[in-house]
Design a protein that fits this description.
five-stranded antiparallel sheet; 16 strands; alpha+beta; Phosphatase 2c, domain 1
Amino acid sequence: MCEQSPSGGVYLFIGDFTGHGLASAIGAIPVAQLFTAMTLKGLAVGEMASRLNCLLVNLLPADMFCVASILEIHANGKNFTLWSGGLPRLAVKTPEQEIRLLIDPQHMPLGILEEHEFDNQTQYFETEWGDTLLLYTDGLMESHHKELGMLGEEGVEQWFTRNRQVNAQLLVDKAELYRAGAAADDDITIVLFRSRPFQFKLPELLAEPIPFNLSFHLTAQHIKDAEVIDQVVAIVNSIPGLAAIRSELFTVITELTNNAIEHGILGLSSDLKAEPEGFIEYYEQRRERIEQLEQGDIWITVQRLMPDNVLEICMQDSGPGFDVASLKICEDETFGRGFVLIRELCQSLQISNSGKQIKVILPITPVIDDADILS
């Protein structure tokens, strides 16, 4: 499925339910309806993944699930946000036919984990103009040759890089030849995208945007509420004129708030997440410390600054802080992927008060340079 985003980009959903025939299609229509509704609202990719998972957990039989990827291609055509659960790895090649990126799925398929177990963490990556992205279901890589065996991800990627004018039909035809005419064991879905800016006509902004200043004070009781971040985002998104950046706004506020809760209030260390086994221990510690939390405060302010028409988001917590100087050396390890994503989405980021306060500037209007469009 493919839908335009309010910010001028595109959302893609590619999925494959377990089983075949009508039984496997039980979730297709509800997923399509929910996905379309969420794209109209401009929800963030992680938020979409959570809602689709909740839908399928309640809808599907226990022995069914949906391997899927949700991809947002930003308006400039070369910035991407991805949630991937169970599909083959995503590949990006350069115009010189060299592999630039291989991105493995990070999550379980949709429809398996309960809400409190589900991880909606997204991955953010960039391409260059003219790069080509490939995303597909496992029916392609599972093409089988009676002597050479299963094609595999490496085989698909060889076809991808050895054909300059690659398209979906070419890959389907090559898979049929590889199977020597035998029927495919599974459905095949293929997405190819060449990086270039979109030029959708966006709704005109108000001639005079209305300045505003919102303040939130989260106490320990609020922090224990799993829905508190969604409530904050919903209030901010109720302000007219922010629909075009709903996805970015959700991501930034979510990551900043989670950082304040996990590292500021709860004192969790991201070092635990350096190894796959550490993720389980990290979130188990998070659950235990949230349950035991008696004191802790987070202050959030969101204001529109004129005449630049940007959002200033400030997050401050009552935790002990950290050594800001050490952050310059290993900031990616300290804060993880979420913090890297914040830096990519925002114009500026400032850390102060011994690490207890983070302030970012988020542009309200997506900007594409004329030089980018003409290149």
